[in-house]
Amino acid sequence: MTDYPSLHLLIGGDKLGTDGRETRDVIDPATEEVIGHLPCASKEDLDRALDHAAKGFRIWRDTPADKRAAILRKGAELIRERADDIAQILTREQGKPVAEAKGETLYAANLIEFYAGECQRIYGRTLVRPDGQSARVEYEPVGPVAAFAPWNFPSLNVARKIGGPLAAGCSVIVKPDEETPAAGLAICQAMIDAGVPGEACQVVFGVPDDISRHLLGSPVIKKLSFTGSTAVGKHLAALAAQDLKKATMELGGHGPVLVFDDMDVDHVLDKMVPTKFRNAGQVCVSPTRFIVQDSIYEQFRDGFAARAKAIEVGNGFDQDTQMGPMANARRPDAIEAMIADARDKGAKVLAGGERIGNQGFFYAPSVLADVPVEAEIMNEEPFGPVAMINRYDGEAAMLEEANRLQYGLAAYAWTNDKARRQRLAREIEAGMVALNHTAVSAVDAPFGGVKWSGYGSEDGHEGVMACMVPKTIHETL
Length: 477
Ligand code: NAD
Known about the structure:
CATH topology of the largest domain: Aldehyde Dehydrogenase, Chain A, domain 1
CATH class of the largest domain: Alpha Beta
Helix content: 25-40%
CATH superfamily of the largest domain: Aldehyde Dehydrogenase, Chain A, domain 1
Distance between the termini: 65 Å
Protein name: NAD-dependent succinate-semialdehyde dehydrogenase
Domain Aldehyde dehydrogenase: 22-473
Strand content: 15-25%
Radius of gyration: 23 Å
InterPro entries: Ald_DH/histidinol_DH (IPR016161), Ald_DH_C (IPR016163), Ald_DH_N (IPR016162), Aldehyde_DH_dom (IPR015590), Aldehyde_DH_Superfamily (IPR050740)
Number of strands: 22
Pfam families: Aldedh
Bound molecules: nicotinamide-adenine-dinucleotide
Organism: Blastomonas marina
Structural class: alpha/beta
């Protein structure tokens, strides 16, 4: 097994370790063992990173697009070569099954490779003007970006945070989550080894609120990019707004899944149950509220519960494990409280509803049925291995429930009726809609939400353009 690496900041290409710095412990969520000590950046470290980011921006912006593309492509290649090691480190710090960790890391490589191509697909346009005049629109990188990535996808989230800015020609200071630092560091190290200047791709850690206030308080930083909860997102968006910084906010979700009675129930269950429990449900686009049509309700509910009970939960390194522990001690506490509240309000617990064992942050795959909409779990993102299944009597009621919340990230619907699929695609309020499909993420498609799920996109062409600003040049020739 790959050893868990020693941890450091990455500032101006230098690895700065724990010497003389405050530290935080990194915990294996399957065993609760301390596996690493993470240095926290001092104010001086952050100021150095900001100086480097300003320099790195000029160096990287002026690097020709084809060279930037070649470097990013090489970075993707290095991530692929190192994917087995990165996956083991990731499972150690985050808990998910090692095969899932490897899949995530390879996806991160694919994303960086897609972004490499985008370096050479940034176009301006010429505006028609009378003789002797010209006007053209050019796109410029916005400037140094401060990016904050969460713990649920430690390698992919960091690739998302750095990929768009680097493709656009920006420098980036990224703060991977302090609980899952090593996989993100490995992604950034691969980019530096591939030739990204150390000043253009830096990594810091610390107390999240101190780091974000320091970076967003600096005029050097021109853009905020955040993935995390809606509550923290609102706080950071307000900080960025004080200095009118551009922002991309990927926030919480509460994925509705509409299941109509023209579908084969087993087919939908085979697709959606593994999607629900992937990464122990700690996924912003996780399917969460199952909105099921009357006549198939019992079959769907009971089939879901039976499949949930059959899921093998264990250490992510065990071959048989289908679902690992939750990533930190807060998650089982939060799920337990939400399920207790739902139960008190009348929900039926058909599977799970309890922790597993007394070591590690394990929680059983859980299924709740007939859950009153007043229950907290029907309104707040559970971010855990729990599905809520309720019965509705037709399309209008199902759609109303789907759009009831302020969240609008991912939504899913299953129906064989093509005209209905078209109506749903138009009516569902979400940034991403999957129709008879489980995936809402693809490297070449924008990923992001509406309403309280945030604004701006990552991935796709939009992920690069989100890091650029237009400039119009009006000229008399
Ligand atoms: P949290 O809301 O405090 O933190 C969420 C993320 O934001 C973490 O990565 C954290 O380090 C970061 N963060 C918190 N305060 C910050 C600040 N002031 N500046 C910069 N970064 C900051 O709590 P949590 O317990 O880690 O997660 C709880 C909730 O967050 C979950 O229930 C879920 O709703 C949401 N979450 C969403 C995603 C996602 O992919 N959208 C990922 C992780 C967590």
